[in-house]
Design brief:
One of its GO terms (cellular component) is SCF ubiquitin ligase complex. One of its GO terms (biological process) is SCF-dependent proteasomal ubiquitin-dependent protein catabolic process. The chain has 527 residues and is α/β, with parallel strands linked by helices. The protein has three domains: 148 residues, Ribonuclease Inhibitor (Leucine-rich repeat, LRR (right-handed beta-alpha superhelix)); 173 residues; 83 residues, no CATH class. The strands form three sheets. Strands 9, 10, 11, 12, 13, 14, 15, 16, 17, 18 and 19 form an eleven-stranded parallel sheet that branches. A six-stranded parallel sheet has the order 1-2-3-4-7-8. The chain is flat.
């Protein structure tokens, strides 16, 4: 049965009492206690949620041993005086989130970062951060590994150059940034100039594993094609060719200067840049791509031996699911996350084959269409009715989230239905850690699937907590059966179809209330 509503834990009750009486219990002894810093994030959130957080309370919570401080939720309270207190009192901070705190002038941000040498993660997005702040970071925060400056209106695209190179002393900063988020900067330059800047940053900061920028793939292509001489950078900065030569020993016979980039995350990959990305970025871990018209995309993708998160969308040209099998057969055992969108399902067995390649998957999302047109193919013939298929069972010991959507309204061929249904049954039976299940517009009865799963021996769907069934054939009897078995279900989302049993729905809701289940059922309208 689902979990019943339980009273809050003793720890939570104590923290709530502390939050309500903060002015009386948060004395100097507690401020000097190392344990206090672990409570601060929760106390800030609690007071903000209850609309009782003000500048004085926030100042009180800034204890000397604080390691993590997130102020984006209460940005209206963040002003110069507060940042001055942080700079004086919280010198051990390793993570600081100032997202959206735009009331503080750049000069105060400079003083702040100079006072926090232990920072490893800093979010200055949508603040008044400027080039002076970036220069202060490179000299004072030498441990910084993650920086976010999205949407900073005082930063131009060329400002990124100062993270990699100091034109005053004429040397590279050597900052070991691994993650840089720099989207939404002022677009006061032509696209080509953006690309030159990003290429400079990639070449001058060899530790970068994640760079969030609109022109990342274009910069990778520029480096691959050696288009250094056309780049025009501001005065006192070295040329792109000089930076590239510093990354790669000059090849014999004037060969290309193609360094291996450390990037591990990249989206916006398509047929126009796939070759270049595969060549320069062999260590990619997370990839988002649209193969488009490419016939070689699957083969080239095999070069990413470290790939663990793969998203493939077919927005421009449909691809058959069988095209992906080459990738999953070779890399599927390493995949932890797989998202495939808008593939065609011509072969009824291709979906089962793909899933069988991904036994260690943690999260799986798929949406598909059927390319056939003949209505006669959809109706089960006598031969099809006698068709028996028993594909090998699927087992996913780590799977926690599963999403499957059929993107069309027309029915599927009978053989496709049989195989998909067996895949779902097998997956649900043999995924002991499954927590979230989303089934959208599948053109066959979910009652049969759940009945077979829930009535089988063993503790199936024991950890299921969220269930969404949109535009599928399912009855409230199935939901009622789910409530009778041991599980962690706390949220069910259903769609109210024309034949929806409202009376049974009311009975189930009454049972939830009567038995005290900690469960919400959301009923969505189909119209």
């Amino acid at each position: 049965m689902p979990r019943k509503r339980s009273p809050p834990s003793l720890e939570k009750l104590c923290l709530e009492i502390v939050a309500e009486n903060l002015e009386h219990v948060w004395d100097k002894d507690l401020m000097d206690n190392h344990l206090a810093q672990s409570f601060v994030p929760w106390l800030i959130h609690n007071r903000w949620w209850n609309k009782s957080l003000d500048a004085a309370v926030l100042d009180t919570l800034l204890v000397p041993h604080l390691l993590t401080l997130k102020l984006s939720s209460c940005r209206e309270l963040v002003q110069e005086a507060l940042l001055q207190t942080i700079a004086v009192r919280c010198k051990k901070l390793t993570l600081l989130d100032l997202f959206g705190c735009n009331k503080v002038p750049a000069g105060r941000l400079v003083e702040l970062v100079k006072a926090l040498p232990c920072l490893t993660q800093l979010d200055l997005s949508r603040t008044k951060c400027n080039v002076r702040v970036l220069s202060a970071l490179t000299s004072s925060c030498r441990r910084l590994r993650e920086l976010a400056i999205n949407g900073c209106s005082s930063l131009s695209p060329t400002s990124l150059l100062y993270l990699a190179y100091d034109p005053v002393v004429g040397s590279f900063t050597g900052l070991g940034l691994q993650k840089l988020l720099a989207e939404g900067l002022k677009h006061d330059m032509k696209a080509q100039k953006h690309i030159w800047v990003v290429a400079f940053v990639l070449l001058a900061m060899p530790t970068l594993r994640f760079l969030d920028h609109d022109f990342l793939t274009e910069a990778v292509c520029l480096i691959y094609h050696q288009q250094f001489d056309v780049a025009q950078l501001p005065p006192r900065f070295p040329s792109l060719r000089e930076v590239a030569q510093g990354r790669v020993a000059t090849p014999t016979n004037g060969g290309p200067l193609r360094p291996t980039l450390a990037l591990q995350y990249m989206d916006n990959i398509n047929e126009s840049n796939l070759l270049e990305v595969c060549s320069l970025c062999p260590n990619l871990v997370r990839v988002v791509m649209d193969p488009g018209d490419s016939h070689m995309w699957a083969r080239w993708s095999l070069s990413w031996h470290s790939l663990s998160h793969l998203t493939v969308t077919c927005n421009r040209k449909l691809q058959d699911l069988r095209e992906l099998l080459t990738v999953t057969e070779n890399l599927g055992a390493h995949l932890l996350y797989l998202c495939i969108h808008c593939f065609t399902l011509k072969d009824p067995f291709s979906f089962h084959t793909l899933m069988s390649h991904c036994g260690n998957i943690h999260e799986f999302k798929a949406s598909f269409i059927f390319p056939g047109e003949e209505e006669s193919d959809m109706q089960p013939s006598d031969e099809a009715m006698e068709w028996e298929v028993n594909p090998p069972p699927l087992q996913f010991l780590q799977l926690s989230k599963f999403f499957l959507e059929y993107l069309e309204e027309k029915p599927l061929p009978f053989q496709h239905v049989i195989v998909l249904r067996k895949c779902l049954v097998s997956m649900m039976k043999h995924s002991p850690l499954l927590q979230e299940l989303y089934l959208i517009r599948l053109p066959f009865s979910m009652d049969d699937v759940f009945q077979e799963v829930l009535r089988s021996p063993g503790r199936t769907l024991r950890h299921l907590s969220m269930l969404t069934l949109h535009d599928v054939q399912v009855s409230m009897d199935t939901v009622d059966l789910l409530l009778s078995l041991e599980n962690d279900i706390c949220y069910i989302c259903l769609e109210e179809s024309p034949d929806f049993d409202r009376e049974k729905y009311k009975e189930v809701c009454e049972r939830i209330r009567r038995e005290g289940f900690d469960l919400e059922i959301e009923l969505m309208s189909a119209w």
